[in-house]
Amino acid sequence: MIRKIDTNSEEFLKELEITKKFTDDVISNHNLVYNPDSEVNQSIQMGLTRNQMIYGKKFCPCFMVVGQTAQEQESTENRLCPCTPALTNEIPTKGSCHCGIFCTNEKALEFAKDNNLHDAIATHSRGLSKEECEKILTKDEINSIELESLLEARELGFINFNLVDTREWMEWVSNRIKGTDYLIPTTSFYDALERIMNQRKTPVVVYCLSGSRSAYCQRIMKDLGFKSVANLDYGISSYSGEKERGDI
């Protein structure tokens, strides 16, 4: 069953303010800065808040939380924010944590430049042929521009595929890629996946916030016999196409 958390509830908003103070402290204590993309920061803060409410801990929202009980969750390699891999490896070597919220000054400037460049490229890269789109659907990873082309081709009737959001209901409601067909959240993945088990021959594109949770789901779906499953590289945070919000 998909768990629905009301992001406008007093409980959530109160917890969100605590989370914002928490991420502010991480920034201050480790001499970091926020990502220049405020949507990335807000998504991560809301994800941390969600996990705090569900699991009682601020597990990283970019990774699937493994384990049904608190004891099982403790015994796995679930990431607690700020996670050790981010502080000891990702930020020192790459300039930002995997989720992208915590950055060095240099990386934040790089992100800002990349965002401007990506917007310029996207306006000149649409209109792929049917054959090119079908080839894209066989890839393990696709980028934002490729997904925009696929959605455009599907709207024109050239190809068919299912676009699946593996984030949580509260993320889906607040912001999702326009054209998403199914919400199959990681917290109720196997139950929700039953909705499309009879469509395993239809190509699938999965996405989450940054590409990590969806990559995990991608592997499971392939093991379960889905013919073609592509993962959106860097998730919705990298997507420059149309988005929508609200429940269906």
Automatic annotation (TrEMBL):
Limits of the Rhodanese domain: 157-244
Pfam families given in the database record: FeThRed_B (PF02943), Rhodanese (PF00581)
Enzyme Commission numbers on file: 1.8.7.2
Cofactor: [4Fe-4S] cluster
A molecular function GO annotation: 4 iron, 4 sulfur cluster binding
First-tier enzyme category under EC: oxidoreductase
InterPro entries documented for this protein: FTR_bsu, FTR_bsu_sf, Rhodanese-like_dom, Rhodanese-like_dom_sf
Reactions it catalyzes: [thioredoxin]-disulfide + 2 reduced [2Fe-2S]-[ferredoxin] + 2 H(+) = [thioredoxin]-dithiol + 2 oxidized [2Fe-2S]-[ferredoxin]
Assigned keywords, A-Z: 4Fe-4S, Disulfide bond, Iron, Iron-sulfur, Metal-binding, Oxidoreductase
Superkingdom: Bacteria
Oligomeric form and interacting partners: Heterodimer of subunit A (variable subunit) and subunit B (catalytic subunit). Heterodimeric FTR forms a complex with ferredoxin and thioredoxin.
Described function: Catalytic subunit of the ferredoxin-thioredoxin reductase (FTR), which catalyzes the two-electron reduction of thioredoxins by the electrons provided by reduced ferredoxin.
Family: Belongs to the ferredoxin thioredoxin reductase beta subunit family.
The protein's name in its UniProt record: ferredoxin:thioredoxin reductase
Lineage: Bacteria, Pseudomonadati, Campylobacterota, Epsilonproteobacteria, Campylobacterales
